[in-house]
Design a protein that fits this description.
This protein is α/β, with parallel strands linked by helices. Helices cover about 40% and strands about 20% of the residues. It has 25 helices and 28 strands. Strands 15, 18, 19, 20, 22, 23, 24, 25, 26 and 27 form a 10-stranded mixed β-sheet that branches.
C-alpha cells in the first residue's frame, strides 16, 4: 500500500484521502479505489506476479494508443508489483445484466442492446489491437498452443469428470483430446485472443459504452474463442436465437476489419464452444467441488445445459468424447438435486414481447399457459347476449359478418371490450417497459364459438395495431390460428444534412430540433403511435450522437442501428446494408426519411403494402421529378419535366418516351415513405454498395409490381433548409392538435 500511495501522490500531486479495497474478481491481484479530497479517483493494483502485471501494462498502453476503450496505465512501481490505472467506474456489464440473468435469461431490450454493443466492440480489440503488437510480451505465453489446450482439457478431466464417478477409458480420452487440441490451434487465422472476454470484464461508462479490463491473459489465438467465451457463459442463459443474433452482429463488425469466410468461421466457433464449455466445467469443478464455493456450484447446471444443447445439435466430431459427454449430461448429479432450484425458467427466443390471445369453451377448460408465466387474464364473456341461441347464427362464429353485426348492434360486447382494452393497454405497456417476453389473454364463453371468438380477435387486432408487437391468436374450439407479426420500420438518418448548415456542422440532421423535439423524436413518436415497435436507424454523420440520443430516449421501442460510419451508402445502399436487421420482417417493413413530416396514416399505408413487393407513398404536389404509374397504380417509369428526361424499363415506353407524359399514365411525387417486402433483398445483389432506391425501383418494376399509394388529404413537409424550421414547428403543432 505504501508504494501505491507514493505512485498516487506522484500522479495527482497529493496523498490519497481514501483508499477503498474493491471486491476480488477471482485473481491473485487486489484492486483499490484511491481518492483525494478533491474527488480525483484512480485504481491501484497490487499483484503477486511481475510478469502478469507487465503483460497488462504493456497491453493497456498498446490498446490505448490504438484508441481502444481500455484503462490507461499511469504509473508502475520499480519492482513491478503494483501500478495505477484510470478509474472506469463501478458499473460492470455483469452487474447491469443481473435482472436478466436472475429471470432465467429474460433480458430486456436495453440489456440486449448493451450485449450487441459489447460483442460489436470485440473485433477492434482482436484485430486492430493485434496490429504491431509484440506477442512476446504476453503472459504466460505468446500464443495458444496444443500444450495449453491439453492442460485445460485435463483440468476438466481431473477436476470435473473424475469427481462425478463416470467411467471412461483414460487413454482413449487422452488420444481424442490430443486430436481436439491439434484442431483448435489449426483454426485458420489468428489475432489477439482476449481469453477472458466475459461480462464481468466489461465496464460501462455514463453513456453505456463498453470499456474493457482484465485482458492480461490474452495471447495470439483464434477469433472464435472469445465469441464462445462471451456467448456461452453459463450463468447468462442466452437463448439459441439470441446467441445467433449476437454472432451475426459480431460477424458484421468483423467484416469491417477483414474478409470473413463465414462457413469456416462457424466451424471454428463450434470447436471453440466445445473447448470453452469443458474448460469452464473444469474451473467450476475445482472451485466448487474442492474449494466449496457456492457460486461455482450453482454455475454447474447452466453450464451442463449449454453442453447438452451443443450435443443435441449433433455436433461433436470426436466419437469417444461425444460418448463420454453424452453420459456426463445425463448424469443424475445435476439432473436431480443440483438442477432443482438452480434451473431458472427459460425465456423464449423472441427478443420482444409476444402476446397470446385465446378463445375457448368453459366446457373444455381454460387454455394452458405454454409460456410458463403462470397465466395472464381470463375474461368471462357469458354475461353478453349470446347469438348462438338463434338459428341463423348457430353455424357461424364470431369471425363471420352476421355475428359481428349482431354483437355490435346489441352493444354489450363493445362496452365490455372498452374495459378490456384499457386494462390490456396498461399491462402490455408495462411488460414492454420491463422487457418481458410473454403475456396471455383468454376469453371464454359457453361454446367458444361466438362471443369469445369475437372478443379474442378484436383484442388481438387492437394490441397489434397499437403496439405493433407479435400477437398469436388461437380460437381453440374452432381450430383457427393466426399470427400477427411485429411491424418493423427503417429510418434514414445517415445523411449529411448539407442544406441545414450551419446546424449540421455540430449535429446530425436527425437531431435538428423542431419545437421541443428533434426530427428523429417526432418521427419515432409517429411510428410508435402507428404500432411500429422495432426500428432500425441508419447512421453516418455524427452517428454517436444519434445512438446516444436513442439510448436516452428508448420510447418503449427496440431501436437498432445500421452503421454506415465508413461510407454513406445512399438510400438503396442503406437498405441493402441493413439486410441482416430487416430480412426476417415477414410482412415487410416501412422505410421513412427522417426529415419528412406528414399526416400520413402509417398504419393504413403499411397494411396496404403487405403482400406486395413494394409500395410507395406518393402525392400530387408540384415538383419537377415525378414517378409515373399506370391505371392500376403500378410504377412504369420516371420523368423530369424540366429537362424532359424519361426513364423506364419497358420497351414500348423507351420507344416512345412521350407516353409517360400523356393522359395514359399518371404522375405523382414520391413522399420519401415506402414499404418493402424482404424478398427484394435478392434483387439487391445486382447493385453496388451505393445506389439510389429510385434507381432500384425503376429497374425492379419490370419484374415485380411496384405500387403507388395515394392517401386522400395527405400533407407533408420536407424539412430541408434552415428557413423551413419555423414552418416545420407550426406544422408539427397543427398535427398534434389534430
Amino acid at each position: 500500500m505504501e508504494e501505491l500511495n507514493r505512485l498516487y501522490k506522484k500522479i495527482i500531486g497529493k496523498d490519497a484521502a481514501l483508499c477503498e479495497a474493491l471486491p476480488g474478481a477471482g485473481s491473485n491481484r487486489q484492486y483499490y479505489r484511491m481518492r483525494d479530497s478533491d474527488g480525483n479517483s484512480l485504481i491501484g493494483v497490487v499483484g503477486t506476479s511481475r510478469e502478469e502485471n507487465h503483460a497488462f501494462c504493456y497491453l493497456a498502453r498498446h490498446f490505448a494508443a490504438k484508441g481502444l476503450p481500455v484503462p490507461y496505465v499511469l504509473a508502475e512501481s520499480p519492482d513491478g508489483l503494483c501500478y495505477l490505472q484510470t478509474d472506469l467506474g463501478n458499473r460492470s456489464l455483469f452487474d447491469v445484466l443481473k435482472r436478466g440473468r436472475e429471470s432465467g435469461g429474460d433480458y430486456s431490450e436495453h440489456e440486449r442492446e448493451l450485449l450487441r454493443q459489447t460483442i460489436a466492440a470485440l473485433p477492434a480489440i482482436q484485430v486492430q489491437g493485434a496490429q504491431d503488437l509484440d506477442f512476446a510480451q504476453c503472459y504466460p505465453q505468446e500464443a495458444l498452443d496444443e500444450t495449453s489446450v491439453l492442460f485445460d482439457l485435463n483440468y476438466f478431466k481431473y477436476c470435473f469428470l473424475k469427481p462425478t464417478g463416470i467411467d471412461f477409458h483414460e487413454l482413449r480420452l487422452e488420444e481424442s483430446f490430443r486430436t481436439m487440441a491439434h484442431d483448435i490451434v489449426s483454426i485458420p487465422g489468428s489475432a489477439f485472443m482476449y481469453r477472458d472476454f466475459q461480462a464481468r470484464n466489461v465496464m460501462l461508462d455514463d453513456h453505456d459504452n463498453p470499456c474493457f479490463i482484465d485482458f492480461q491473459g490474452g495471447r495470439r489465438g483464434p477469433l472464435q474463442y472469445d465469441v464462445a467465451s462471451f456467448l456461452w457463459q453459463a450463468s447468462a442463459r442466452y437463448t439459441k436465437a439470441f446467441r445467433e443474433e449476437l454472432t451475426s452482429v459480431y460477424l458484421q463488425e468483423l467484416r469491417s476489419y477483414q474478409e470473413v469466410d463465414e462457413e469456416a468461421f462457424r466451424e471454428g466457433l463450434q470447436l471453440c464452444v466445445l473447448f470453452r464449455l469443458l474448460q469452464v466445467l473444469g474451473a467450476y469443478g475445482f472451485r466448487g467441488y474442492f474449494e466449496r464455493k457456492t457460486h461455482f456450484l450453482e454455475s454447474i447446471p447452466p453450464a451442463i445445459d449449454n453442453l447438452r444443447e451443443l450435443l443435441a445439435d449433433g455436433w461433436c466430431p470426436y466419437p469417444y468424447i461425444y460418448d463420454v459427454l453424452r453420459r456426463l449430461v445425463d448424469h443424475d448429479a445435476w439432473n436431480k438435486e443440483s438442477r432443482e432450484g438452480c434451473q431458472p425458467q427459460q425465456s423464449p427466443s423472441s427478443s420482444s414481447l409476444m402476446v397470446r390471445v385465446f378463445s375457448f369453451s368453459y366446457r373444455k377448460g381454460i387454455p394452458e399457459d405454454s409460456g410458463n408465466n403462470g397465466g395472464g387474464y381470463v375474461f368471462d364473456c357469458r354475461g353478453i347476449h349470446n347469438p348462438g341461441r338463434y338459428e341463423p347464427y348457430k353455424q357461424l362464429t364470431g369471425l363471420d359478418e352476421p355475428v359481428i353485426r349482431f354483437l355490435e348492434d346489441d352493444g354489450e360486447i363493445l362496452t365490455f371490450l372498452e374495459s378490456v382494452y384499457e386494462l390490456a393497454d396498461a399491462h402490455v405497456g408495462r411488460y414492454l417497459e420491463r422487457g418481458f417476453n410473454n403475456l396471455m389473454f383468454c376469453f371464454g364463453c359457453t361454446g367458444g364459438q361466438h362471443r369469445s371468438v369475437y372478443s379474442a380477435q378484436h383484442l388481438a387486432e387492437h394490441i397489434h395495431r397499437k403496439f405493433g408487437i407479435e400477437v398469436h391468436v388461437c380460437h381453440r374450439e374452432q381450430g383457427i390460428r393466426q399470427v400477427l407479426t411485429p411491424r418493423r420500420a427503417m429510418v434514414f438518418a445517415a445523411g449529411l444534412g448539407t442544406r441545414l448548415k450551419p446546424l449540421t456542422d455540430t449535429m446530425p440532421k436527425a437531431l435538428v430540433p423542431v419545437g421541443e423535439k428533434p426530427l428523429l423524436g417526432h418521427l419515432l413518436d409517429r411510428l410508435r403511435a402507428a404500432g411500429f415497435c422495432d426500428v432500425v436507424v441508419n447512421v453516418h454523420h455524427f452517428a454517436d450522437m444519434i445512438e446516444d440520443w436513442c439510448r436516452l430516449h428508448p420510447m418503449g421501442m427496440s431501436i437498432r442501428f445500421s452503421d454506415e460510419r465508413e461510407q454513406l451508402l445512399e438510400t438503396g445502399g442503406g437498405i441493402k446494408h441493413a439486410e441482416s436487421l430487416l430480412r426476417d420482417a415477414r410482412d415487410g417493413f416501412l422505410i421513412h426519411n427522417v426529415d419528412i413530416l406528414s399526416n400520413a396514416d402509417l398504419y393504413a399505408f403499411a397494411e396496404a403494402g403487405k403482400g406486395r413487393a413494394a409500395t410507395l407513398l406518393v402525392s400530387e404536389r408540384k415538383t419537377q421529378r415525378y414517378l409515373v404509374f399506370d391505371d392500376e397504380m403500378r410504377l412504369v417509369g420516371w420523368t423530369n419535366t424540366a429537362t424532359g428526361e424519361v426513364r423506364s424499363p419497358f420497351p414500348e415506353i423507351l420507344a416512345d418516351p412521350s407516353l409517360l407524359v400523356s393522359s395514359r399514365y399518371h404522375k405523382y411525387a414520391f413522399a420519401g415513405i415506402h414499404y418493402m417486402s424482404p424478398k427484394l433483398f435478392a434483387y439487391f445483389q445486382d447493385f453496388p454498395d451505393r445506389f439510389s432506391i429510385i434507381d432500384f425501383y425503376l429497374k425492379l418494376c419490370a419484374e415485380e409490381a411496384v405500387y403507388g399509394y395515394v392517401q386522400p388529404g395527405l400533407r407533408l413537409m420536407d424539412v430541408g433548409k434552415i428557413d423551413t424550421l419555423a414552418e416545420a414547428e407550426a406544422f408539427v403543432k397543427e398535427l398534434e392538435r389534430k
